[in-house]
């Protein structure tokens, strides 16, 4: 597996590096730090002065970036394979996506900072954009991953169930994991048509169909060597996933990112915002 680890010097990016200990041996690891060098914002400044100032700032950021990359290498797990350090100038999101595509990586790993005005903007502009635009799965690490034994797999339909099975068939995790396959029926929420939510008969049929769906997904995962069980719950998708995670305490949440027709669905609405910003564990988004 070829992995791109994007680091920015935050505690979460160091935890992202440590999280590699729970993944299968890496074929090649690219460690990337993107430097968004600010340009002088003073129109009256002479061009040669502005250029000198820019060069000075870039040198300082480059020195800091080299130290960051070296520090990251020093905390990598022992089983990490061939490693390449990359220090590039550019907007973080664009640089991450560009390098990931150019190096044909199988997984992007990056840290996500916690809540707060500044962190909210950072998550929205970097992690969320990477998740929704990357051509490969993305692991967002928001805290220390002490172990990886229990996985909560949230699925919406056949499209993401198939994508999850394909990803898991590649054996991305170092140790065996137990998987809880969860699907959510949005009764009692604005997503459900008026009148249907009040029909107990229709609700029972919907729950029965959803139960058959997750049991089938779990059975297919069992055929490729995973211990898996299915579960169905009702409510708003984002809050339901978070509530289930708070109760079952998974080590990782897995979610799909693209709908049946290529349009982003699950992870561009309130479900993504809730899960990515409030998840009690790292989140892996597959496609």
Strand order within the widest sheet? 3-2-1-4-5-10-9-6-7-8
Mean pLDDT value: 85
Low-confidence stretches: 114-124, 259-268
C-alpha end-to-end distance: 16 Å
Largest pleated sheet:
10 strands, mixed
Q: What CATH architecture label of the largest domain applies?
A: 3-Layer(aba) Sandwich
Integer tally of domains = 2
CATH superfamily annotation of the largest domain? HUPs
Overview of this protein structure:
Helix content is about 45%, strand content about 20%. The chain folds into 2 domains: about 1-140, 3-Layer(aba) Sandwich (Rossmann fold); about 150-285, 3-Layer(aba) Sandwich (Rossmann fold), CATH 3.40.50. The protein has helices at about 10-20, 45-75, 90-100, 115-135, 160-170, 200-225, 235-250, 270-280, and strands at about 1-5, 30-35, 80-90, 105-110, 140, 150-155, 180-185, 225-235, 250-255, 285. The longest helix has 28 residues, at about 45-75. A 10-stranded mixed sheet has the order 3-2-1-4-5-10-9-6-7-8, sandwiched between helices. α7 runs parallel beside α8 (about 270-280). Residues about 115-125 and about 260-270 have low confidence and may be disordered. With about 290 residues, it is of the alpha/beta class.
């Amino acid at each position: 597996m070829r992995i791109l680890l994007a680091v920015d010097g935050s505690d979460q990016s160091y935890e992202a590096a440590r999280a590699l200990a729970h993944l299968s041996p890496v074929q090649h690891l690219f460690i990337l730090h993107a430097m968004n060098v600010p340009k002088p914002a003073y129109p009256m400044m002479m061009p040669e002065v502005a250029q000198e100032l820019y060069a000075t700032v870039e040198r300082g950021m480059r020195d800091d970036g080299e130290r960051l990359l070296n520090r990251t290498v020093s905390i990598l797990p022992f089983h990490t394979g061939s490693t390449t350090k990359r220090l590039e100038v550019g907007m973080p999101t664009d640089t991450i996506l560009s390098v990931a595509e150019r190096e044909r990586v199988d997984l992007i790993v990056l840290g996500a900072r916690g809540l707060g005005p500044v962190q909210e903007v950072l998550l929205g502009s970097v992690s969320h954009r990477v998740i929704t635009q990357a051509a490969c799965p993305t692991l967002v690490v928001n805290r220390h991953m002490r172990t990886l034994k229990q996985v909560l797999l949230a699925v919406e339909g056949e499209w993401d169930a198939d994508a999850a099975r394909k990803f898991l068939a590649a054996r991305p995790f170092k140790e065996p994991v137990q998987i809880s396959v969860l699907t959510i029926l949005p009764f009692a929420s604005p997503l459900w048509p008026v009148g249907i939510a009040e029909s107990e008969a229709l609700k029972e049929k919907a729950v029965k169909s959803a139960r058959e769906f997750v049991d089938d997904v779990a059975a297919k995962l069992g055929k490729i060597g995973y211990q898996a069980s299915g579960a169905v719950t009702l409510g708003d998708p984002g809050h339901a996933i978070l509530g289930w995670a708070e109760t079952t305490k998974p080590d990782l949440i897995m979610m799909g990112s693209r709908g049946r027709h290529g349009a982003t669905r699950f992870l561009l609405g309130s479900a993504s915002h809730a899960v990515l910003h409030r998840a009690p564990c790292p989140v892996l988004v597959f496609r």
